[in-house]
Specification:
The chain is of the alpha/beta class. Helices cover 46% and strands 13% of the residues. The chain contains ten helices and six strands; from the N terminus they run αβββαααααβαααββα. A hairpin with a 2-residue loop joins strand 2 and strand 3. The mean pLDDT is 97. Bound molecules: adenosine monophosphate.
Length: 220
């Protein structure tokens, strides 16, 4: 997701008309794989993924943060190998594992609307983990210009954006429901007028960032 976070940092500096070195944002790349980046003075100061993409948020099929003892517990009690435990945590966990239904958030939102409690639990676990990381990253920032939503879910799901951002008003994060609802894939501020912190939807463009980086490397 580094490519996406870099693209968003550059694009948000343009949108907010700021020098990149003065940009302070939290970028939420929410898709099948999800990660947050705390971008302080234009550089990624912290990010939720680790040595592999497994760390951090609850994802489509990845568990995200867990007690490390879960791995030895699974190996000893389910009689599986470390390789299998790795497969379980990467391919069979996350919202798919909790809901036992789907890794696609559209399916889960629809199922919850029809009363599927496990789909509801999976979505609550997802949004709660994102909230937790937003709080952690705000504590690492001197000031915050904007929270940015990108990736398939961040760009398209007004429901997930609402459920993540509601309840953070005491931190200066005030979503305008009228601006949020029904908005998809546009570069737009969806915070309430006059809110301390802007909330942007910003479609990512990893291909463009790769092309720019390639051009920079070969022109040296
Ligand atoms: P990505 O990995 O960034 O391409 O995101 C893909 C994921 O975005 C899909 O698995 C869906 O769960 C989610 N997604 C795409 N469109 C929507 C939507 N309108 N509402 C909810 N989730 C969506």
């Amino acid at each position: 997701h580094g490519t996406s976070h870099k693209y968003i940092a550059h694009r948000m500096a343009e949108i907010l008309n700021k020098d990149l070195s003065e940009l302070n944002i939290i970028n939420c790349h929410l898709g099948n794989g999800s990660s947050l980046a705390c971008i302080k003075n234009g550089k990624v100061y912290d990010t939720s993924m680790g040595v592999t993409p497994l760390e951090g948020l609850v994802m489509g099929t990845r568990s995200g943060d867990i007690d490390p003892t879960v791995v030895t517990f699974l190996c000893e009690n389910e009689n599986i190998t470390p390789h299998e435990a790795n497969q379980w945590l990467n391919k069979k966990s996350g919202v798919l594992g909790v809901s036992k239904l789907s890794s696609d958030f559209r399916d889960l939102e629809e199922a919850r609307d029809k009363g599927n409690e496990k789909a509801g639990l999976a979505l609550d676990m997802f949004t709660n983990r994102v909230k937790k990381y937003i709080g952690a990253y705000m504590a690492q920032m001197p000031e915050l210009d904007a929270i940015v939503m990108t990736g398939g879910i961040g760009e398209n799901s007004d429901t997930m954006r609402r459920e993540i951002l509601h309840g953070l008003e005491h931190l200066g994060i005030e979503l305008d429901d009228k601006k949020n609802d029904g908005t998809r894939g546009k570069e737009v501020d969806i915070a309430k007028d006059g809110a301390k912190i802007k909330i942007y939807i910003c479609p990512t463009n990893e291909e463009l960032m790769i092309a720019r980086d390639t051009k920079e490397i070969i022109s040296k």
